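Dear Dr. L.,

I hope this message finds you well. Following up on our conversation about the binding site, I have prepared a predicted three-dimensional model of the protein together with adenosine-5'-diphosphate. For your records, I am including the exact sequence and ligand specification that went into the calculation, followed by the C-alpha cells. Please feel free to forward this to your student if that is useful.
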Amino acid sequence: MTRINQNSYERLIDENEIRIDGRKLDELRPINIEVGILTNAYGSALLHHGKNKILAAVFGPRELHPRHLALPDRALVRCEYRMTTFSVEERKSPAPSRREIELSKVIRESLEPAIFTHLYPRTSVDVFIEVLQADGGTRCDGITAASTALADAGVPLRDLVVACAVGKVEGHILLDLDDIEDKKGEADMPIAILPRNKEVTLLQMDGQLSREEFQRALDLAIKGCEQIHEMQKEALRKKYSEIQEEVLEELNEFSEKEENQD
Ligand code: ADP
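The resulting structure of the complex is given below.
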C-alpha cells in the first residue's frame, strides 16, 4: 500500500488544480455503503469512504435502561462515537477522549431532528459508531452511516441525514477533505443536511473563510451531500430488493408445492 509521507510533499494542490490523491477540487473520495451487515443490531451500515471505514449499529426503539432517564413524550436518542485503537497510525488510547465525547454529542444532535422520536415515548434509540480506520471526515461519515443504519432499523425518519466536509486548502475551496488536507489546510467545515429540504443539522468550522468563500463552500457541501445521499438510498434499495427477491422465490416454491399436491 502506498503511503503519503506527510513531510514529503511540497504542495497539496498542483498547478492543474489536482489534489495530492489525484482528485479534482470538487470530487468526493470513492464511497461504498453496505447495510444490514450486523445480525444482532436492529439496523447497521458499513461505510467505506476513501480510506475511512466506519461501522454504525442501531438498537431501538427499545425499553430504556436506566428507566429514570425515560422521557414521557419521546424516545431518548443516545449516540456513542468511538475510534478503535487501530484506526489511526499511532495506537489510539482505548479510553474515551474529550474529542469522542464531543463528537458523540454533535452527531446525536445532527441525527435527532430527522427522527420521529414522539412516536416512541419512554424508549431509547441507541446509535453506536465505530471508526475502524480514519483518514479525515469521520464525524461526517459517522452521521451518514448512522442515518443509513437508522433507516435499516426501520426507525421512522423525516429524511436520511447526510454529511460531508468542505474546506480551504492553499487558497482553494475543496470538497471532502482527507486527513492531510484537514490538518494542513486553512479551514475545515463539516456539514450535515436533511437533503429533501436542505435543512442543516450540523455546521462546524475550524479556521477562517470569507463570506463569499463560506457561500461557495456551503453550495459545494450540499452538492457533495446530494451525491452521497443517492448512494445511501441505493444501498438501502439493494438490501430490500434482495429481500423482495428471496420472498418472491419462496412464494413461488410454495405455490409450486401446492399445485403439485393438487
Ligand atoms: P474528523 O474525523 O471528523 O475530520 P477531526 O478533524 O477531529 O475529525 O480529525 C481529523 C482526522 O484526524 C481524523 O479523521 C483522523 O484521521 C485523525 N485523528 C483524529 N484523532 C486522532 C488520534 N487520536 N490519533 C491520530 N489521528 C487522529
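In brief: Residues 120 and 135 are 36 Å apart (CA to CA).

With kind regards,
A. P.
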